[in-house]
Amino acid sequence: MSSQAPASTNYIVKAPFDESSIGDCFLRSSDGAQFKTSRVILSIASPFFRDMFALPQPGEEASSTTSELPTIPVEEDAQTLQTFLTMLYPLDPPVVQSYDVATKLVRACDKYLISPLRLKSCLRGMLATPEALKRDPLGVYALAWRLGLDEEAKTASRYTHRIDLRNPAVKQDLITRSGGVESLLELWDMRLRREEQVDRIANAAQLGGSMGCDGDRYSNHSGNSSKGRSFGDCKASAKLSLLEPYPEEACCVEKIESFFGWTAGTGARDCTNCNLKKDLELRQNASRVLEQLKTYPQTITPWVLSFATVFAANHSDDL
Question: pTM above 0.85?
Answer without folding.
Answer: no
